[in-house]
Amino acid sequence: MIDWDDIRFFLAVAQNGNVTAAARALNVNHSTVSRRIAALEEKHGVRLFERIPSGYEMTSAAEDIYQLALELEAKNQQISRRLFGQDSRLQGEINLTMPHDIFEYSLVNDFADFKEQQPKIQLNLCVGQGLKNLAAREADIAIRLTPAPPDYLIGKKIAQIQHGIYQSIKLEKSNSIPIIAWQNETQVPDWAKIHFENAHIAIRVDDLYAMYCAVKAGIGIARMPCYLPDTIANESVKRLPINIPLSNWGVWVLSHVDLRHTRRVRCCKDFLTERLIHKKTYFEGHRSHY
Question: What residues does the HTH lysR-type domain cover (predicted)?
Fold first, then answer.
């Protein structure tokens, strides 16, 4: 019989391509990963990875079992979700994920209310960049900005997102309009070309709050989802009277379908849904200052 932990370590190395990244994903020491892979190879008398300068590369033997290992991983995750889905207690842990700006500027005080109402529920919050895998139970509940969630997630769409073009009263008039762009935008974005005859990129950012701060400092103008600047409501940051079509992206509160009967997950989802509905006007751009 093969140990499930052996499969976990095998998949981590296969998917990450090196021991260091695999150890980080598994939250163990890299020497533990090396030792487990070596022991697995010795146990079965087969080499699973070629050690190359850039890391680990799967051998034909590893490629032969890779899909089976993925299927075992999926079944293991399904068992975990099904068992968790039967939990009827209003106590225990809930893992949540959401954009950090929604937590910090839209929901942080609401979470304080939830903890007061449900002191036996332990909330574990992840607000880092990147999506968490709800199928793998990296999170139980997600507040996600998306045009459409995958079929295996259930929940409620709170609102569609409205964008606006914002600038600070500190921004000095110029013949060339400074634009705050996203990190991956190599050229002046289309919205700037449409609305401004002469525009240039003044700075690039990889975070929405960083974009807002750059606008507030007078570095340039930016197209942002209205909920952040309108929630902060700093008097120096104004939305320009330029009409932008409503985005097809929405704000969703989601969980995996297998957790639909987990009482504490349902309780937390209902709470977050209610509180976000009360803030719907911010997401839809009805609270802007021009």
Answer: 2-59
